[in-house]
Write a structure and sequence with these properties.
The protein has 12 helices and 22 strands. By secondary structure, the chain is an alpha+beta fold. A 7-stranded mixed β-sheet has the order 13-7-11-8-10-9-14. It has a 7-stranded antiparallel β-sheet with strand order 12-16-17-15-20-19-18. The protein has a 3-stranded mixed β-sheet with strand order 1-2-3, with helices on one face.
Length: 552
């Protein structure tokens, strides 16, 4: 969370005392869900000083920070946590803070004490007796929590009956638990008196209404941003784990199949998605689960992973519900058209442990000005990076060499096949007979899928010899294609799941259970079972069609 300081021109004091209305209003309106990312970014740029406390250095906000203070992560924190059942638990750190990281409360208190001293030096009234000492002189997290506890006295969330020692002795308790209570409150409002002036409940009559921005002839499809199964919000944490990209490996936009046919669009085509606020270029994937007139794109894809636009949330609406203040991020009108970018580049390879984050940052910086580029991690047992880019002009030698340098292969002999006339390039690096790095550039990058399969499987690439440089989508030697990842927990891909479903007898439930037993899919978190169910439906459909064909 950023701490922002700007100077008011009439007084020269910190904006915490006399805020500038323009940027303060922008942050107040959008600080929770930032439906207008561009406006918040402008507010941060206008601030004289932005201090950010974060556990990760590559978030979107970090780019605006003048000072980045390292914060602890969940396993390094002590204090309390409250779940959605109103149950407060005492938690203790499992690990010591890494490096110079400190707890959020300690960072905020330290910053506040320095700001307090600076204001005192300027003679600004502190509104407190100086003999009382600092307003932020907390020695530990328990002292902070005790102050918070005291502020709840007499309110509907009164927890003055709780303490660290009680939570450690009796375990988690539900609020409210006022002083003198022997236990927390399991169910609220059983006395039919609510937290309002007259004790009566307040109901809000909601009229759902229509989307704030309906589609029209200029912007015919509705873009429906949403979450990916294995990713979380801005991916500041999950976006660092290559195995979490197994199921959805890179940014795409999904468009209803009927709309793809009507627009003459195919899987893999680059398209530009434009709203009234911005545009972004992405590869296309046809979807049979979307209704005609709709498109889906994951909300996570921002400038930390994409070039060729300002990211997906730059397309959405700066509109919030007047009652809940929730942003309308799930629907906006867009137009989608083919992006004429005939020159493609794809580079992927394994990196040394710990170099993935730095390499992704370097690669995105190299291709930031291209019409389209994306950079994502991959790999389950090793760490890799996938770079994809497109342009209307051939990629020059300087850029190619810089990309190879970022992958750490600039001084290593490569198997190369270059065509100076067309700009086509095929650069491969082998180590101990296994592919370590591949770069394809030009109008033909169709051999990417089987080369990636060779690299990811760590298969014997030396057996291909010079045929590794052969163009085309068909591999010169047979390769077992395992299909896309379905279960990230166990590492099961689509091919063995389909095989298990087809070999099992019985109906849908029996086949799914057989696939779980034979492959292990769905045996841990269970998030993949929805997709396993779709594969089972497809299996039964194909078996039914085969039976009809045999009978005919």
């Amino acid at each position: 969370m950023p701490m922002i300081a700007t100077r008011s021109p009439d007084t020269g004091v910190c904006a915490r005392c006399r805020p500038d209305p323009a940027w303060r209003r922008a942050l107040r309106e959008h600080n929770s869900h930032t439906p207008d990312a561009g406006r918040v970014g402008e507010a941060l740029r206008r601030a004289d000083v932005v201090v950010l406390q974060d556990a990760f250095a590559d978030t979107a906000t970090a780019a605006s920070a003048d000072l980045l203070l390292p914060a602890t992560t969940w396993g390094e924190k002590s204090g309390t946590v409250t779940n959605s059942e109103r149950r407060i638990s005492r938690v203790c750190a499992a690990l010591d803070p890494y490096g110079e990281a400190r707890a959020d409360w300690a960072i905020a208190a330290g910053f506040a004490r320095r700001l307090e001293s600076a204001l005192a030096a300027r003679g600004i009234e502190r509104r407190r007796d100086p003999a009382a000492g600092s307003l932020f002189a907390w020695p530990d997290i328990e002292t902070v929590w005790n102050e918070h506890r005291g502020l709840t006295r007499g309110r509907d969330l009164d927890i003055t009956g709780l303490s660290y020692s009680l939570l450690e002795r009796l375990g988690p308790q539900q609020w409210p638990m006022p002083a003198g209570a022997s236990a927390g409150t399991a169910r609220l409002y059983t006395g039919r008196r609510f937290a309002s002036a007259d004790g009566r409940a307040r109901f809000a009559a909601i009229d759902g209404g229509s989307p704030a921005e309906p589609t029209d002839e200029t912007y015919p499809p509705a873009l429906l941003p949403g979450r990916l199964r294995d990713q979380w919000h801005g991916m500041s944490r999950t976006g660092l784990v290559g195995r979490l990209f197994g199921h959805e490996p890179e940014p795409v936009i999904e468009l209803a199949g009927a709309d793809c046919i009507a627009g003459g669009l195919r899987d893999g085509d680059l398209v530009q998605i434009a709203s009234r606020r911005g545009a972004q270029v992405l590869p296309l994937r046809r979807s049979e689960s979307l209704q005609p007139g709709t498109a889906f794109v994951a909300m996570h894809w921002g400038p930390e992973f994409l070039a060729g636009g300002a990211g997906i949330n730059a397309l959405t609406l700066p509109v919030v519900d007047p009652v809940s203040q929730q942003p309308e991020l799930k629907h906006c009108a867009v137009r989608i058209g083919r992006a004429s970018l005939p020159q493609r580049l794809v580079a992927f390879g394994w990196l040394e442990a710990g170099r993935v984050v730095r390499a992704r940052r370097e690669l995105l910086a190299l291709v930031r000005d291209l019409p389209f580029a994306s950079s994502v991690p991959f790999g389950r047992d090793a760490e890799g990076v996938l770079l994809r880019a497109a342009s209307d002009q051939p990629f020059d030698t300087t850029l190619i060499r810089a990309i190879e340098t970022a992958f750490g292969v600039s001084e290593t002999p490569l198997a190369t096949l270059d065509d100076p006339r067309s700009g086509g390039r095929r650069h491969l690096l082998l180590a101990a007979g296994r592919l370590r790095f591949v770069l394809l550039a030009g109008a033909d990058t169709e051999s990417e899928p089987w080369l990636r399969e060779l690299l990811v499987q760590a298969a014997d690439a030396a057996a291909f010899g010079s045929r590794l440089l052969a163009p085309g989508a068909t591999p010169p030697l047979a390769i077992e294609h395992r299909g896309r990842s379905v279960c990230n927990c166990v590492g099961v891909t689509e091919t063995p799941i389909r095989a298990a479903l087809e070999s099992a007898g019985g109906g849908r439930a029996e086949r799914i259970e057989a696939a779980r037993r034979l492959t292990g899919c769905g045996s841990q978190c269970g998030a993949c079972l929805v997709e396993v169910g779709r594969l089972a439906d497809d299996c039964l459909r194909r078996l039914g069609e085969a039976a009809v064909g045999t009978a005919a």
